[in-house]
Amino acid sequence: xxxxxxxxxxxxxxxxxxxxxxxxxxxxxxxxxxxxxxxxxxxxxxxxxxxxxxxxxxxxxxxxxxxxxxxxxxxxxxxxxxxxxxxxxxxxxxxxxxxxxxxxxxxxxxxxxxxxxxxxxxxxxxxxxxxxxxxxxxxxxxxxxxxxxxxxxxxxxxxxxxxxxxxxxxxxxxxxxxxxxxxxxxxxxxxxxxxxxxxxxxxxxxxxxxxxxxxxxxxxxxxxxxxxxxxxxxxxxxxxxxxxxxxxxxxxxxxxxxxxxxxxxxxxxxxxxxxxxxxxxxxxxxxxxxxxxxxxxxxxxxxxxxxxxxxxxxxxxxxxxxxxxxxxxxxxxxxxxxxxxxxxxxxxxxxxxxxxxxxxxxxxxxxxxxxxxxxxxxxxxxxxxxxxxxxxxxxxxxxxxxxxxxxxxxxxxxxxxxxxxxxxxxxxxxxxxxxxxxxxxxxxxxxxxxxxxxxxxxxxxxxxxxxxxxxxxxxxxxxxxxxxxxxxxxxxxxxxxxxxxxxxxxxxxxxxxxxxxxxxxxxxxxxxxxxxxxxxxxxxxxxxxxxxxxxxxxxxxxxxxxxxxxxxxxxxxxxxxxxxxxxxxxxxxxxxxxxxxxxxxxxxxxxxxxxxxxxxxxxxxxxxxxxxxxxxxxxxxxxxxxxxxxxxxxxxxxxxxxxxxxxxxxxxxxxxxxxxxxxxxxxxxxxxxxxxxxxxxxxxxxxxxxxxxxxxxxxxxxxxxxxxxxxxxxxxxxxxxxxxxxxxxxxxxxxxxxxxxxxxxxxxxxxxxxxxxxxxxxxxxxxxxxxxxxxxxxxxxxxxxxxxxxxxxxxxxxxxxxxxxxxxxxxxxxxxxxxxxxxxxxxxxxxxxxxxxxxxxxxxxx
Amino acid sequence: xxxxxxxxxxxxxxxxxxxxxxxxxxxxxxxxxxxxxxxxxxxxxxxxxxxxxxxxxxxxxxxxxxxxxxxxxxxxxxxxxxxxxxxxxxxxxxxxxxxxxxxxxxxxxxxxxxxxxxxxxxxxxxxxxxxxxxxxxxxxxxxxxxxxxxxxxxxxxxxxxxxxxxxxxxxxxxxxxxxxxxxxxxxxxxxxxxxxxxxxxxxxxxxxxxxxxxxxxxxxxxxxxx
Lengths: 862, 226
What we know:
Oligomer: heterodimer
Radius of gyration of chain A: 27 Å
Number of domains of chain B: 1
Structural class of chain B: alpha+beta
Distance between the termini of chain B: 57 Å
Shape of chain A: globular
Distance between the termini of chain A: 47 Å
Strand content of chain A: 5-15%
Number of domains of chain A: 4
Strand order of the largest sheet of chain B: 8-1-10-9
Helix content of chain A: 25-40%
Number of strands of chain B: 10
CATH topology of the largest domain in chain A: Dimethylsulfoxide Reductase, domain 2
Largest sheet of chain B: 4 strands, mixed
Number of helices of chain A: 27
Largest interface: A-B, 87 and 71 residues
C-alpha cells in the first residue's frame, strides 16, 4: 500500500520522535531493558505517548529527580514512569518538600521549576544519538567509523594503552579533559579539577590537568585576588531588594543563572527597582525588565567602567568611609606600607584613574572614544550607581571571556567597593556569583583527589601538542610545581573526555583538529555520541543521571538538595563513570588500585553498583549534611520526599559578616584588595601560572582584537558567542523539540545588513584567518552595528575543506588565553558575506517547517 | 516495517455514525457554567519556552505540532528598540470557529468549564478546523494523521491541579482561572503584577470579535490596541 510506504518514509524522517525511537531501541537494546520497552507498544494503559486517553498520574509511578548539567541552575524534574520507561516529566509544584502542598511557592521555599532544556530531557535520554554500547574506531580518526565491541575488549585496550603511554612518555602523557557535562551530583562527578577522572588518572600516576575554566576564569581570578574567594555571590532572593540593577553582559533570560534569579528580579522591578543592561544586544532580559539599554562595543567594558570611576572620584561620590575601612589600594590613603618597595605594586587605583601615572585621565570622554557609549550616558550611569542605595552591579562572566577579561572583572569589583555596595542586602559583589555553600562530595575524597604532574591553561593543549617540545612554559600557562619537575613541558599523547565535549567547545577548532592527529589514545566517555566522540578511538557508554543513584546540588545559587534515584535501569550496556574507572583500576593495578580507588566496592561493582552507591550517599548525608549542616531529616525520609529545602534566617549576602561584624576578608591583607598583594609581589612572571605581566590594580588594557584595532580593515565585525538558551553548551543540540524553536544563526544589525545587501534568512559565511562557518542570518535592530552574534555549542559539521556547515563559532575563536587564564571566546574579529556554500542545520527542518511560522512573525520586514 | 504501530486504528463504523449524527444536529453554541481561560503577562515573560517544552513532553508530540506557541515580537530602530512576548495555545473560545467546521463532530466544548477538546477517535485529519481557527491553535500531527490541540490538560484540571504549561512557567507569568475574574482583575494570581491591567486584545493576534477567545493579557506599551 503506497500510503503505508509514504508513512514509513515519514516515520523515518521524523526519527527523533520518541515513539519510533522506542521501537528501535526495544529491538536494539536486546535483553537488558526489553521487558519494559516492548510492552508499551499496545497495552491499553501502557501507551506511553498516547494522545487520548492520557496515562494519568495515578496510573504511573512518580519519582522526584533533577536535571544535571553545567547550565546555571539546578531544578527539580519529576519523572512519571511506566515500568522502566519515563513517559513524561513534570517539575516542582510545591508538593514534594516537607510541609509542602500543591502550589506552595514564595520566597522562603520557592518552587524549583525546570527550564526548557530540562523539560526536553526525554528527547536526550531516548535520542537516536544515545551511546548504548562500547565502540572502537575502525576508520581514520574523526571519520566517525566505529564498530561495536564488548566491555572487555574496550577496557583492555584502554588499560593496555594507558600503561604503554605512561611507560613510554612519562607521567604527563595523558591529558585530563574531564568537564562538568555530567556533573553536579555528589557522587558521580565529572570535573576539571577534582572529579572521578582526575582521581583515577592521578592515582594511576599519569595526568596533565587543565586549570583554567572556560566560562569564567577571568572572573574567578579577579574574585580570588580581590576577595580571596569565589564565593562572592548572593542568594537570588537578595536581588529582590535592589533599587538599581546594572546587568553588565548578564542575560539570565537565556542562561537561567540561579534557579529563580529572574523571578526575584521581577519582584525587584515590581518594587520600583530600575534596570540597566550594558550589552551589545538588547536581550530578552533587557526587554522583560524594561531596562535602559546601553549598547557597548565588545571587549571595551573595562574602559567604560574606568570612565565611571573617574566620574565618581572627581565628583567625590565614592563611599570614602567604606573605602578606608575595607579596601587596600583604592587610593593613596589605603596603600599598604610595603607597596612602595614591591616589584609590581607601586600604583594605587584612584591615581591611575586620574591619570597621575600615564598622563591620561580616564575621563568619560576618553572612555567614550573606546567603548562607543556617549560620555553623557557614562556619567549618567555612574551618577545613578553612586547615588542609589542599595545598588547592584552584576558583573557577568561574558565580558570577561576576553583578552584581559580579568581587568573588566577587577574594574567591576572596584566600582562595587567604591560605592560601598559590598556585603549589603540589595548590593552585589559578583563576580563569580557562587553563594550558599553545599556539602558537595560523597565520592572518595582524599590525598589522591587532585594529583597532577603538569597543569596547563585549558585552551592551550593543542598549542602544546603541536609545538612540543619547543614550547615555553608561559605560552601554556604552566602551573608552578614545588619539585624538580617544575617547568617541564608536558608530553601529551592521549586525552580522556569524561562529561566533556571539549573538542567541540574549546577555541580554534581547526588547530585542535591538527593536534588530535598526533595523539595515540583518545577516550570519550559519554551518554551521547558527541562531535568530540567522533574523534575518539574508544567510546564508552555512560549512564545518564536518570540511570544511576545520586544527589543533586544547586549549581550556582539556591539552597537545597534533590535526591536523584536510579529512575530507570541503564539503557543498552551503559555503565556509570564510577563503575568504569573502578573496573579500569582493577584491570591496571589489581586489587591494590581497585580497592584504593573505590574503597567501598569490590570488583563486582562493575555489574552491580546499587549497594555501594547507597552506602556512599548515606555516609555523605549522615556525616556531612546531618552532622555539619544541622539537617534533621533522615536519609530515609529524604529519599522518600526527594527534596530538602533549607530555610535561611536571612537572605544570604556575600561578605555581610565582613562588613557588619568586621570579619577579615580571605585575602592576605584581610581587606578588599583593589591592589592585589599576590600580584604586587611578583617579579618573574614566567615562573607563575599567568606567564605574562598583570597589573596589580584594575586597568584598561587594549585587547588583541576589537572594533578599535587596525585589523578591522580586513575583518570589520566583532563576533561574540554567548551561551544559548536552547542548549547547555553542546548538550541538547539534538533535541528536535528545542530545535524547532530556534535556528543556529548569526545575529546582525539591520543597518549593517542593508548596507551589505543581506536579508533575513540569507545563508552567509562568517570567516577570519582561523576558520569559516556557514549559517543563516537573523537581521535585527536589537544588535548594535559592527557586532555579530553566534551562540556557542552547536555540533560541528565540517565539509571536505574544513568549513563548518553547522555554524560553530569556535572555528573562529582565538586559542590565546588572557594572562589570568580568561578564555578569549569573545575577542574575535571576522567578516561576513552571502554565500553559496552548503548550510547543514544538522536536523530535518522540513519535519517542523510549519512550526517555524510561529517563530518571529509580525515583525517589520527588514 | 511495523508502521502500523504508530498510527492508531480507526473505528470507521463509529466515525460514520458520528457524521450522520453531525449532519442532523443543529449547531447551538455551548454556554459553559464557568469558562476557564489563560492569562499571560506579555512584558514580564522572558520567552524561555519552558511552557512549550512541558506541553510537547506532556502530550508526547513529535516535531511539528506545537500546542503552545510563544511569539517573539520586536520593533523600533537601533538603539530605540522594544521586545515582548505573546504566548498562546488554544483560547477555548466562547464561539470556537473550529467546532462547527468539524465534519464528524469530534470537536466539543465542555459544559462544565468551557474547555474545547477533540475526540481523537473521531478525528479524520481533514484539517478544516486548522484553517478555521484565527489563532492557529489546531495542530496537525503527521505521525497520527489527525489534528490535535491544547485541551488545558483536562486530566490535571480534573485532578485539582493546573495545566503543565502553567506549572512550568519559571517566571510565574502564565496562569489559568475563570475568565471573568481574569478580565476584571479579581483573580488571585502572581501573573498579574500589582500595577498591571488586563486586556483582552493585543496587537499580534487576530480580532477577538471573531471567536471571543478566553484569554487575557498584560500588554506591553507597544502592544496595546487603542
